Amino acid sequence: HSRLRLQNTNGFLKEVLFMTEGPSAKYKALRIMNAVGGDILQNIYVKGGKIGVNPRGLLGKKLQRTETFGKNIVLVFNGYAIKIHLMMYGTIHIYGLDEKLAKPEEEVRLILKFPNKRVVVYNTPVIEIDYASKIIKKLKKTLGEDPLRDDWDPSRAVKLIMKNRDRKIGDVLLDQRVIAGVGNIIRNEVLFRARIHPERLVRDLKLEEVEKLVRIIKDFMEEFFKRRLRGERLRPVLYVYNRSGKPCVICGHPIKYYRQKPNNRKTFVCENCQR
Fold it and tell me: What is the sign, positive or negative, of the torsion defined by CA atoms of 255, 260, 127, 137?
């Protein structure tokens, strides 16, 4: 059975409800590598997407590695690459060769057939196939710092945040050009842990506060990733997300819910702890 049906059916279904954040993307990339890494691609089916090279050029090529850049999953085959961004509703399954697909055929966007398994991607709006160097160069150019990558540079992350002086910190954290891989769950949780109100303007934050926030972002994203690896639920470490009206775990004050402008994103805050 699929090694990518994320822990169990319940966990898998719950995960579909959220935009894939950096730690989940990295987990899925690792599961693909564990299942078919080093195998030769025998067949490919792709529907839609941005196709820069003939997909059949990947046939006979070995899956050398999987990488993530923020929320983007990149599969690298001897000079070629496939980039996948699952957005809100995309999912990845891994099947045996004779195993029946779990979802309707019209939801299939990509099938990669290897000697013993098939990787099937459903409902994803973003698929790109091109030369690996081109895809990776573009991702590095357009994305900010990724806390889960080996080339993570915290001092640059601090500078990228501080550049956005006139924006709210809650808005800046969702900007993938600043810190790649942060989604709405991470945004809410790290601001709570840093005791920073999402409405504060970046120019009103002290340098030490931003440095602390950047450390917390890395720590929380690593914890998120480790929980995915261990098959553990995220709920025990969600102190504000989806806890509207419930008591703050620190002070007991009820958690407030609202939608932050300009992007109308679900926001959870303890008005007592976060200033």
Answer: negative
| Domains delineated in the chain | 9-142 (3.20.190.10), 154-269 (1.10.8.50)
**Secondary structure of residue 164 in the 3-state scheme:** coil
| pLDDT 10s digits, 173-229 | 999 999 999 999 999 999 999 999 999 999 999 999 999 999 999 999 999 999 999
The C-alpha atoms of residue 168 and residue 130 are separated, in whole angstroms, by 36
Q: Which of 124, 121, 151, 122 is nearest to 139 (CA)?
A: 151
Say what the alpha-carbon torsion angle 52, 56, 60, 65 is, to the nearest 10 degrees.
Answer: 30
Does this model's pTM top 0.85? My answer is: yes
Task: Name every residue whose Cβ is closer than 8 Å to that of residue 232 and which is 6 or more positions away in sequence.
Answer: none
